[in-house]
Amino acid sequence: MSYVKIPQVFADDILKLYQPQDGILPLIEPGLTPQQLLERAVNAGQFADAVIFLAHALPVRESIWWGCCCAGLRSDWSEQEQDAIRSAKAWVHTPDETSRRYAEQAANTATLQNGAGWIAQAVFWSGGSMTGPTDPVVPPPEYLYAQAVGGSINLTAILPDGAEAENRYRQFIEMGINIAHGGNGNIGSAA
């Protein structure tokens, strides 16, 4: 079954969208599908690389929604961090400039020391301008949001001490695959 939310391209085409890390590079062969490369990365324990790859492969809203779903499985967020996650979810449902700017504020309040702040930052970097509303428009680099989504999911998986990282990674990647298949990311219990 193919990933309906990922363009029918080769894995190499997705890897050209960003600078892949050393962990995933030995797994690449010409002609691999995104699904095949993702499976190889997971089987090789290259979870962080698999997350970054899938964050770039999914369309922007689905990528950010995946980050929201992963963050939503954690119950140890501060109020500011919860607000950052809520702001990202609000943007997914209503992807307008008001929601994007609210996510920017929420990311600044939550900080970028955690996955919650990064998922709100991903929203801010999803389009529009990176400067103030009255300043000249400076669009974010293409796919910068995907780097933030990957950072959000990776931090959510490993913090605070890495003890649950592998279990969380496996669950988070399963959620991302569910979204790639056209699902909503809801696969079951929290990690």
From TrEMBL:
Family annotation (InterPro entries): DUF6931 (IPR053855)
Top-level taxon of origin: Bacteria
Protein name listed in UniProt: Twin-arginine translocation pathway signal
Organism of this sequence: Grimontia celer
